[in-house]
Specification:
Elements (H helix, E strand, L loop, with lengths): L1 H17 L12 E2 L8 E7 L17 H11 L5 E4 L42 H9 L3 E4 L11 H4 L8 H19 L5 E2 L14 H8 L2 E3 L3 E2 L11 H22 L8 E5 L10 H14 L3 E3 L1 H7 L12 H7 L20 H8 L2 H15 L7 H9 L29 H7 L3
C-alpha cells in the first residue's frame, strides 16, 4: 500500500502538469507554502502530535516521541511548528487496516497515536507535552480536534468518514482552538486540513473554514519524508532506508543550490509512519545538521511570516509595508499567497480591495447557503460595491479595470495591481 501511495503522489504531480494551471483568486486565507526571503531561514512542521509513546524502535530509554523531537530541536536551537490534534478517542467504533496501508490506524477514522491508544496522543491528553512545546518557544497550529477529513478522498480513503460541511468543520477546529485558549492562554493563528482535503459537499472549502476562524492555511513546500514507510521487509534495513529518504533529498537540494531552503516550510510527522516506525526520531538530527552546515536557522512558521507574509514579495519592495498593513482586513494576495503586482487588476479584485471583509465574506456565505454550491470568490464584494454605487450593476468580476471609482485613489497612470495599490488611499 505504501508503494501505491508513492505512485499516487507521482501520478498526481503528472496529472497536475497536464491540466490547465489552477486559477487562484484573492483570498483572506492564503495557502502558505513558503515566503520570499534571501535569508537562510526556514521552518519545520510536525503533524498529528503530541505523542506520549516511545519512538519505534525505542532507542531513547522510553522517552515520548514528542520529547525526543523537542530534545533534538533544543540541541540545535531550532524552533518547530507543531500541528496538533485534540483527541481521537471519540472516533469509534472502528478497526485497524492493514499495516503498511494508509488505513493502518483506522479504516473509518484516524487514531493518534494508534488504535486503542488514543489517550497517549493529542492535546487533550498531553498537558505536559503541550506546556513544554509552548515554554520552549515553539508554535502550535490546528490540525483538527478529531483529525477527521473535511470532505471525500476516495482514492486513498474511500471508507473514511468525513465532516462534509463548513459548520461541522468550524465546530471541530473550534474545540481545539478553545482548549488552547482556555487552558494555556494561547491563540492559534494557522491550520492545516487533515490529509489536505479542501473541498466539502456543501459548496464551501477549507479556505472558508479558516476565513471564519481568522486562520491562515499552513501548507509546506518540501516533504521531509518522515511519514513514508520503506517497502523493505527487514525492519532495520527499512528504517535505514526511511532515514536516508529524509536526508538525501535535502542534501542533494543544498548541494545544487545552497539557497534552496530560504523561506521554505518543511513537512514532518510527530507520530508513526504507516509501518509503525518513527524515522523522524533518527533523521531529524541529520536534517538539522545539514541545515546548520549551510548556515540555516530553523524558525517557527509565524516567525517566517514576520520576515515576509507573501510568496513573491519581500521587504525590499516599496509596497511591502503598505500591503502588510492592508492584509489585516483586505484580501490583497491570492489563495496561493502570491501578490502578482505586475499583472492587470480585475473588477472583482478591485471590489475585494474596496469592500469590508465582513461584507464580502458574509454575503458570499449567505449565497452559498442559499444555493448549496460554490460561488465566485468575489460575488459578495461585488454585490456590496454595486449597492454602494462604487461599481455599476452587471460588473463582471474577471474583466480588466479600465476606470476607477473616486474617493479612494490618487492619480493612477495605469491599471496594474501595483499601480492601483500605490494610488489606494488607506
Amino acid at each position: 500500500m505504501s508503494l501505491i501511495v508513492k505512485i499516487g503522489k507521482q501520478g498526481k504531480r503528472m496529472v497536475k502538469k497536464l491540466l490547465p494551471e489552477e486559477k487562484h483568486h484573492l483570498s483572506y486565507t492564503r495557502r502558505i507554502e513558503r515566503v520570499k526571503t534571501a535569508k537562510r531561514i526556514c521552518a519545520m512542521t510536525f503533524d498529528d502530535g503530541p505523542m506520549d509513546m516511545p519512538a519505534s524502535p525505542d532507542r531513547f530509554q522510553g522517552r515520548a516521541l514528542t520529547d525526543v523531537l523537542l530534545d533534538i530541536l533544543a540541541e540545535f536551537e531550532a524552533k518547530g511548528t507543531f500541528d496538533v490534534v485534540g483527541d481521537t478517542g471519540e472516533n469509534y467504533p472502528d478497526q485497524a487496516g492493514k499495516l503498511g496501508s494508509a488505513a493502518w490506524g483506522g479504516v473509518k477514522f484516524d487514531h493518534y497515536p494508534d488504535l486503542g491508544c488514543d489517550e497517549k496522543g493529542g492535546a487533550a491528553h498531553n498537558d505536559r507535552l503541550i506546556r513544554r512545546i509552548l515554554e520552549e518557544g515553539h508554535q502550535i497550529t490546528n490540525h483538527g480536534y478529531r483529525h477527521i477529513i473535511f470532505g471525500k478522498k476516495p482514492f486513498v480513503y474511500g471508507a473514511r468518514e468525513y465532516l462534509g460541511g463548513v459548520d461541522k468543520a468550524v465546530d471541530d477546529l473550534n474545540r481545539l482552538d478553545l482548549l488552547l485558549r482556555e487552558q494555556y492562554g494561547y491563540q492559534i493563528t494557522m491550520s492545516r486540513p487533515p490529509h489536505y482535503v479542501d473541498k466539502m459537499q456543501d459548496g464551501f472549502t477549507s479556505y472558508d473554514v479558516y476565513d471564519r476562524l481568522g486562520y491562515q492555511y499552513m501548507a509546506a513546500s518540501f516533504d521531509g519524508a518522515g511519514w513514508l514507510p520503506s517497502t523493505l521487509s527487514d525492519p532495520e534495513a527499512a528504517l535505514e532506508a526511511e532515514v536516508s529518504a529524509m536526508v538525501e533529498p535535502m542534501r542533494r537540494a543544498l548541494e545544487k543550490d545552497p539557497e534552496f531552503f530560504c523561506g521554505q516550510i518543511i513537512f514532518q510527522k510527530d507520530g508513526y509512519n504507516m509501518s509503525k516506525r518513527t524515522p523522524v526520531a533518527f533523521g531529524l538530527r541529520k536534517q538539522l545538521e545539514l541545515l546548520k552546515e549551510y548556515g540555516y536557522q530553523v524558525v517557527t512558521v509565524a516567525e517566517l511570516m514576520e520576515e515576509s507574509p507573501f510568496a513573491d514579495l519581500d521587504q525590499g519592495d516599496p509596497l511591502f509595508d503598505k500591503l502588510c498593513r492592508l492584509q489585516g482586513d483586505r484580501a490583497v494576495a491570492y489563495s496561493d499567497n502570491q501578490v502578482r503586482l505586475d499583472q492587470p487588476m480585475t473588477w472583482g479584485e478591485l471590489a475585494m480591495l474596496l469592500s469590508p471583509k465582513r461584507e464580502a465574506m458574509g454575503r458570499r456565505w449567505a449565497k452559498i447557503r442559499r444555493t448549496g454550491r460554490h460561488e465566485h470568490a468575489y460575488c459578495g464584494a461585488l454585490e456590496w460595491c454595486v449597492e454602494q454605487g462604487l461599481l455599476p450593476a452587471g460588473t463582471q468580476p474577471d474583466g480588466p479595470v479600465n476606470a476607477l471609482p473616486g474617493g479612494h485613489f490618487g492619480r493612477v497612470e495605469g491599471f496594474t495591481r501595483r499601480q492601483i495599490y500605490e494610488a489606494y488611499q488607506e
